[in-house]
Design brief:
This protein is of the alpha/beta class. It has 18 helices and 15 strands.
C-alpha cells in the first residue's frame, strides 16, 4: 500500500509531506482547493503524461515521491526482482518534471524509463475516475473489467502468445503465396548466378595464394637484374670482383706472414671473409636459378584475380564472402523450387497453432461465463441499493469464430434500470445519473477482486445523493477493510464513512495561492461534515446531524 506521499512545487502545492494508512481515507475540501491535484500528482508519478505547466509558478521543477509497502504485493515484488530493482519490502517511485518539459523517473533510486514506471504503477495503484462511466460503455472496457474480476490474466497471456505465433505463420504464408507470381524469373536468375559461382570454383585460400604469386611474378624480372649486379660485383666483373680481391688479399697476407709473423686474429678475419664471400656466391647462384621470369603465368594469375573480383562486384559483396553468398543463393533457390512443400508445412503449422489457440480461447470463454454469472448477480444486487430497485444487470458472452489476441468472445454489458423496461446494452442507457450509478456499482464490486492494494476513487459519486450516497459510502468503507481506499468526495454521506479524513484547503501568501492537506481530528471532522451538509451557515442542528452521521458509520 501507499504509506508515504511527498509532493513539491506541483501546481498550487508548494510542499506536501504526509503518511497514509490502510482502510478508507476520504479527502474533502472546497471546490478548487486542489483535491484532484493530489490524484493528478499520483497519476503523473506513476507514468501519466506530464505537462510542464504543472510546475508551480516561480520554480524550476516539480518533484513527486511515492513510498509503497510491497510486502503483500507478490506481483510487484516479482516485477522489481526481474528488473533488479527490488529493495526488500519498500518501493520508492520518484519523478522530477522541469519547466522545460523534461522529466526523470526513478524506482528505488535507479533511473528507469517511463514505460517501466507505468508497468509497475498498474501493480500498485488503480484509479477509478469520475468519468469512468464514459469509458464503461465501450465493449473493450467491459471485457477488461470482467477479466479483472475473474483473474483471467494468465489465460489472456497464453491466448495472446498463441495468437501472435499463429498470425506470424499466416503472414509467412501470405508472403510466400504473393511471391509465387515472380518465382519463375527468380529461379532463372538464381540458377544463372549459382552456375556462375560454381564455374568460378573458387577454392578456400585461393585468392591469398594468387595475390602472393602475382606479387612474386611481377617482381621476378627486377629481382633477376639485381642478382646479376650482385654476382658481377662479387665474382664476375673483372674491374670489381670482391671474391678475387679477397683471395689476392689473403695470399698477400700469407706472404707477409712468412717474412714477419702476424697476429692470428688478423689472418683469421681475412680468411673468414674470403670463405663468406665464396658461400655468398653459391647462395646467389641458387637464388638466381630459382627465380623464374614467366609472363604467361603472370597473365594467367592476373586474369583469374580479375574474374574473381568482377563476380564479387556483380554480387555487391567482398571476395571473401563469395562462398557464403553461394550457399545463401542455393538455399533461396531450394526454397523457391520447393514452395509447395513449404506452403504445406506452414499450413500444417498454422492449423496446429490455431488449434492450440482455440483450446486456450475455449477455456477463457468458460471462465468468462462463470465469472459473468457471479458478477451480474452481484451488480444486480447492488443496483437495488443504488436507487434502481427492480433493475437487472446481465453480461452477454457470445463465442465467435473470430480469433483475437484477447480471445474469441463478444462481451456486452446489458441493463434494465427499472422494472418493466426492456434490457438493453449499457451504451443505450438514457439517464446519465443511472449510468453513473451503474458505473460506480461495477467499479466497487470489481475493485474487491482487484490485485492492486491501493484503490483511488476520484469523485466517482458525482450526480448521486441521499440514501444512495450513503450506500456508496458504506460499500467503499467495506472495501477499505481489505484494501487501501482513497476517496475524493463532495458528499457528506460518503465522507462520514471513512476510517480517516483528510482535508485540503488553500491559502494566499504574498499574492500566491498555496494548497495544504492534513488529517482532521474528531472535532474538526464533525465541523467538516457539517460544512458539507449545511454550506456556509452551520447551525447546532447541522452539527448534531454531522455527529449522527459519523456515529452511524462506526
Amino acid at each position: 500500500m501507499l504509506h508515504h506521499l511527498h509532493i513539491k512545487n506541483f501546481a498550487i502545492i508548494e510542499n506536501l509531506d504526509m503518511e497514509l494508512t490502510s482502510g478508507m481515507t476520504v479527502i474533502t475540501g472546497e471546490t478548487g482547493a486542489g483535491k484532484s491535484i493530489v490524484i493528478d500528482a499520483l497519476d503523473i508519478a506513476l507514468g501519466d503524461r506530464a505537462d510542464p505547466k504543472m510546475v508551480r509558478h516561480g520554480t524550476d521543477k516539480a518533484e513527486i515521491n511515492l513510498s509503497f509497502d510491497i510486502q503483500n504485493i507478490p506481483l510487484a515484488k516479482t516485477w522489481l526482482q526481474d528488473k533488479s530493482l527490488l529493495s526488500e519490502n519498500d518501493c520508492i517511485v520518484r519523478r522530477i518534471i522541469t519547466r522545460e518539459g523534461r522529466s526523470r523517473n526513478f524506482i528505488n533510486g535507479t533511473a528507469v524509463t517511463l514505460q517501466q514506471v507505468r508497468e509497475l504503477g498498474t501493480l500498485l495503484v488503480h484509479v477509478h475516475g469520475q468519468h469512468q462511466h464514459q469509458s464503461l460503455i465501450r465493449r473493450d472496457e467491459q471485457r477488461y473489467l470482467l477479466d479483472c474480476y475473474g483473474h483471467h490474466q494468465p489465460l489472456l497471456k497464453q491466448a495472446e502468445a498463441c495468437y501472435v505465433l499463429w498470425q506470424d505463420t499466416e503472414k509467412k504464408m501470405t508472403q510466400l503465396l504473393g511471391q509465387n507470381q515472380d518465382h519463375s524469373a527468380e529461379i532463372t536468375l538464381l540458377t544463372y548466378q549459382i552456375e556462375e559461382l560454381k564455374t568460378l570454383a573458387l577454392q578456400p585460400g585461393e585468392c591469398e595464394a594468387l595475390f602472393a604469386e602475382q606479387k612474386q611474378l611481377s617482381a621476378s624480372e627486377g629481382m633477376t637484374k639485381t642478382l646479376e649486379v650482385c654476382l658481377a660485383r662479387l665474382c664476375e666483373d673483372p674491374a670489381f670482383n670482391l671474391l678475387e680481391q679477397s683471395q689476392l688479399l689473403q695470399r698477400d697476407v700469407e706472404q707477409l706472414h712468412k717474412i714477419y709473423p702476424l697476429d692470428d686474429n688478423l689472418r683469421n678475419l681475412i680468411n673468414e671473409a674470403t670463405i663468406a664471400l665464396g658461400e655468398a656466391e653459391g647462395e646467389l647462384q641458387v637464388l638466381s636459378e630459382r627465380i623464374e621470369i614467366n609472363p604467361e603465368r603472370l597473365q594467367t594469375v592476373e586474369h583469374r584475380l580479375n574474374t574473381i573480383h568482377d563476380i564479387a562486384r556483380k554480387h555487391k559483396i567482398k571476395v571473401e564472402a563469395l562462398h557464403e553468398h553461394q550457399t545463401l543463393l542455393e538455399r533461396q533457390l531450394n526454397e523457391l523450387e520447393n514452395t509447395d512443400i513449404y506452403l504445406e508445412q506452414l499450413q500444417q503449422l498454422s492449423e496446429k497453432q490455431l488449434k492450440e489457440y482455440q483450446i486456450i480461447a475455449e477455456k477463457l470463454t468458460k471462465k468468462r461465463l462463470t465469472a459473468g454469472k457471479k458478477l451480474q448477480k452481484l451488480i444486480t444486487g447492488s443496483m437495488q441499493t443504488l436507487g434502481m430497485v427492480g433493475g437487472t444487470f446481465k453480461i452477454i458472452i457470445d463465442a465467435e469464430n473470430n480469433p483475437k489476441a484477447h480471445g474469441q468472445d463478444r462481451i456486452e454489458f446489458q441493463v434494465s434500470a427499472n422494472p418493466g423496461h426492456p434490457i438493453q446494452p449499457l451504451s443505450k442507457v438514457a439517464s446519465g445519473g443511472e449510468l453513473a450509478r451503474m458505473s460506480l456499482a461495477i467499479q466497487v464490486i470489481t475493485a474487491q477482486k482487484d490485485a492492486t492494494p491501493t484503490l483511488i476513487f476520484d469523485e466517482v459519486d458525482v450526480g448521486i445523493g441521499g440514501g444512495t450516497a450513503e450506500m456508496i459510502g458504506k460499500l467503499l468503507r467495506k472495501l477499505g477493510q481489505n484494501a487501501q481506499v482513497l476517496c475524493i468526495t463532495h458528499l457528506p454521506q460518503v465522507a462520514s464513512q471513512g476510517h480517516h479524513h483528510l482535508h485540503i484547503g488553500k491559502t494566499t501568501q504574498n499574492k500566491t495561492t498555496l494548497s495544504n492537506l492534513r488529517f482532521l481530528s474528531e472535532e474538526e471532522r464533525i465541523h467538516e461534515i457539517a460544512r458539507m451538509v449545511g454550506g456556509l451557515t452551520i447551525t447546532e442542528q447541522t452539527i448534531a446531524h454531522a455527529k449522527e452521521m459519523l456515529t452511524c458509520s462506526d
